[in-house]
Design goal:
The structure is a single chain. This protein is mostly helical and 309 residues long. Among the domains are: 52 residues, SH3 type barrels (Roll); 115 residues, Lysozyme. The strands form 2 sheets. The protein has a 3-stranded antiparallel β-sheet with strand order 2-1-6, with no helix packed on it. The protein starts with a helix and ends in a 30-residue tail after the last helix.
């Protein structure tokens, strides 16, 4: 009789282990050890990484280190908004008794308005921040080129506000929890706070390495200790590819801006020459003076002085 009991106990353990490996389909919240939480529709534990699916499809997910997750809890149910038709109907129904009693008690013009405001309370809805404006503001605060900050964001998170790296870096500019705390960033998933902290950190690294962009980018990726240890870019493939990707994207933006500036200058020159020839003829023996084309210049950010070719 002992063997069947032992077999039953092992079967229970196997079923429990299989249940933890299967994806969770309920809407839960993953509470991380640093205090942040991520709402997700379902999850899948894959060893050291837990994949949180934030959307209904398999394309929207965030990979979080399993060790960084403190616990899971049920997400609060979202109350769907009432249709406008029902609200209008209830408003008309609430006004109907008042209209029947209008002969006994006349209404003032302010009463229907007050009733309508009570039926439709004001909702404090904050629009999503414009990322371009966020980057422009943070770049201006720390005298950085917005194109450089955008290139760093592209390489770090691909413009994913909820991105979390396997090492625990969070948000648009992938701030580590300790670095975010030192920079005063309380919520690394807040786009404004994250970009503000990341821009400040990038500026500090530029000043630390005498505005050597290559060293500053390498320190942003691998840490200042590694850059000082190797006297430059560490011999890591990830860091080398990271620096090259940002420099290539940044130079691509500058070349595009220069081409657009030259095109605009050429159009302006053509329009000016056409207007002059139509109004006042130019003598044939007098040479035309060439209008110098405007050169595309970066904003006076120190970081651009060290851009690699």
């Amino acid at each position: 009789m002992k063997k069947p009991i032992q077999i039953g106990q092992w079967a229970t353990v196997i079923i429990l282990l299989a249940a933890t490996a299967l994806p969770c389909s309920a809407a839960d919240t993953a509470v991380l050890r640093n205090g942040f939480s991520i709402r997700h529709e379902r999850r899948r534990i894959m060893g050291a990484i837990t994949r949180l699916y934030v959307g209904a499809d398999d394309a929207s997910f965030v990979d979080v280190p399993t060790a960084e997750i403190d616990h899971f809890e049920a997400a609060p149910a979202e109350v769907p908004p009432q249709p406008a038709k029902n609200e209008s109907t209830s408003l008309l129904q609430s006004q109907a008794p008042a209209q029947t009693q209008s002969a006994a008690q006349p209404q003032t013009a302010a009463q229907p308005l007050a009733r309508a405001q009570s039926q439709f309370p004001a909702r404090n809805v904050q629009p999503a921040p414009d990322l371009n404006e966020v980057v422009k503001a943070a770049s201006g605060n720390y005298n950085l080129d917005p194109d450089l900050v955008n290139s760093v964001i592209r390489a770090e998170s691909g413009f994913n506000v909820r991105a979390v790296s396997p090492k625990g870096a969070q948000g648009l500019m992938q701030l580590m929890p300790r670095t975010a705390s030192q920079l005063g960033v309380q919520n690394a998933f807040d786009p404004r706070a994250n970009v503000e902290g990341g821009a400040r950190y990038l500026r500090e690294l530029l000043e630390r390495y005498d505005f050597d962009l290559i060293k500053a980018l390498a320190a942003y990726n691998a840490g200042p200790q590694r850059v000082e240890q190797y006297g430059g870019v560490p011999p890591y493939y990830e860091t080398k590819a990271y620096v090259a990707r940002i420099v290539r994207d940044f130079n691509k933006k500058k070349l595009a801006a220069k081409a657009a500036s030259q095109s605009t200058a050429a159009k302006t020159k053509t329009t000016t020459t056409t207007g002059k020839s139509a109004g006042t003829p130019v003598p044939a023996n007098k040479a035309h003076k060439t209008v110098p084309q405007a050169q595309a210049k970066a904003s006076p950010a120190p970081s651009e002085q060290q851009t690699a070719q």
